[in-house]
Every structure is written in structure tokens, then in C-alpha cells.
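Researcher: Can you fold this with flavin-adenine dinucleotide in place?
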Amino acid sequence: MTERQARPKRTVHTGRVERVEQLTPHMIRVVLGGEGLAEFATDGSTDSYVKLLFPAPGPDDPEPYDLDAIRAERPRAEWPVTRTYTVRSWDPGSRELTLDFVHHGEVGLAGPWAAGAKPGDRLRFLGPGGGYAPAPEADWHLLAGDESALPAIAAALEHLPEGRPAHVFVEVENAEEEQPLTVREGVRVTWLHRDGGAPGSLLVPAVRALEFPPGDVQAFVHGEANFVRDLRRLLRIDLSLPKERLSVSGYWRLGRDEDGWQASKAEWNQSVEAEEAAALRS
Ligand SMILES: Cc1cc2nc3c(=O)[nH]c(=O)nc-3n(C[C@H](O)[C@H](O)[C@H](O)COP(=O)(O)OP(=O)(O)OC[C@H]3O[C@@H](n4cnc5c(N)ncnc54)[C@H](O)[C@@H]3O)c2cc1C
């Protein structure tokens, strides 16, 4: 009989808030540091993300912290609640990890946490995951998203291959939410102000109206799930772009918290893929 291999424990990193900066009225930068990041490393993906762990109501967490034990021994309602955030930047030298949070009102966990964060606060997280970076061999790049994708878009712009053109569309609430970005020669950034409109209401027509340059495109499209689905239709069905050239997924979904969105995401993706397969067959 073979012995069952124990699943390796997942590394939980513990960041200490070093600085908090209000980048725009609704975007808050939190810089984490400290010894608890000693094992953190990224792999060069510009969309690296971490899973923040917010304690659920219940007994205090064990010290030393053991996520596997919490999940094995406590009821689900007492497991930490996860929220996903892009690594805006990671500096292994100074051991500083920068995360940018959309403060989308007083609802939710992560946005309000960032709004109240102060130096010395502790934040635990898993990760990183991720897998996109601008491909040097692509003839041009398309990047499109809302505020939640802005940290990943900003990181990608810092790593665009020299001399490769890019069309970048970022939809934010208004002009006050714009941020300075690294814009190399050949990169065209279009800011869209939804001014109370639905997320993606300007982004979808703007990308649709783009005259696609010739050549091989790599596309990065993220943000609210409904508009991401619409843009995916455009790229996959109308323009027949190969899947391998796309990094396209919903980062959040209107009317659902992250738990609700993650729980429904597999089904959502299945229906998007089924529609796509049917359209491509016909
Ligand atoms: C891989 C990945 C990377 C991400 N990176 C970032 C990032 O760097 N910065 C960032 O801010 N977000 C990012 N997100 C999105 C973020 O995880 C979600 O917005 C998350 O739901 C926010 O958690 P919350 O606790 O603030 O709100 P929740 O408790 O999850 O949601 C509460 C309510 O707010 C709504 N809501 C959630 N997000 C938004 C939003 N952005 N605007 C308006 N309403 C919203 C929900 O629909 C819900 O009704 C990322 C998501 C993924 C999957």
C-alpha cells in the first residue's frame, strides 16, 4: 500500500503596512513590508495577484498562524475571507509590496479595510498567482479594463517591449480617477469617464470602434464580468482571435461580493465558452 503524500502547507505571508497613499479619490495605495514577506517572490508576470486573508468573526487566530489547521478544525463560517489584489509592484531589495485598492464605497471588506489602513497594521495573504506578461513577439498589444484592472495595466505598461505599439483603454468614474502611467513611444492611452454609467458602458464601444492594426495582437482585458464577457465576444467571435493570445477574465461582478462571484465563476465561464464554441462552429 502506498503512503498518502501529505499536501504541502501553503505559505501564508504576513505584511505590515508601511505606508498608505490616497492616489485618487477612489484609489488607495497600501505598501506592505516587514520580515513576514521574507519568502515572497514573483515570477515576472505583470498580472501577479495575491489572495488577502481577512479574519472572519470567531475565535482569535492561532499563533503561529496555521491556515490549514483553521480550515481543518473550524467551521467554514470561521475561515478567513479572501479577496484578490494585483501586485502593483514588488521590490525584493527593500522587501516592499505595493497594492492599489479601489475604494468602491463602504460596502465590502477589502475596500473599506484599505480606507482605514494605517502603518503597523497586519495583512496576511497567499500567493502570488498570475501568468500574463506582454509577449515580446506580439506585433501589438491591446489592454482594456476598469479601475480594478488599472494596477495590472499600469504594471504591464512598464514592461511593454520597446517599440511595440499598444492601444490602452481604461474606464474610470471621472477625470479625477486618472493616474500617471508609463507611456512609451507607440503607446496610445484612452481614458474613458463613465460619469455614473454602468461599468464597461464606454469601454465596450470604444474597443469595438478601434481599427485593429494588422499583425498579431496580444490582448489583456479585465474588470467587471459583464463587460469582459462582451469584449471577449468581440475578440473571440467577431474577430476570431486565438484563445492563446488573450488574457480575459472578470475580476469582479456587479451585485456580487467576491465570494459570490468566485462561487458562480466556473458556471459563468462555462456558459461563455459554450456560446463561443457554438458561434465559432456556425
Ligand atoms: C486576479 C484579480 C486581480 C484583482 N486586482 C485588483 C486590484 O489590484 N485592485 C482592486 O481594487 N481590485 C482588484 N480586483 C478586484 C477585487 O478583487 C474585487 O473588486 C473585490 O470584490 C473587492 O473586494 P471588496 O471586499 O472591496 O468588495 P466585495 O465584498 O467583494 O463586494 C461588495 C460589493 O461591491 C461591489 N464591488 C466589488 N468590486 C467593485 C469595484 N471595483 N467597483 C465597484 N463595485 C465593486 C460588488 O459587486 C459587491 O456588490 C482583482 C480581482 C482579481 C480576480
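Model: Folded with flavin-adenine dinucleotide in place. The longest helix spans residues 258-281.
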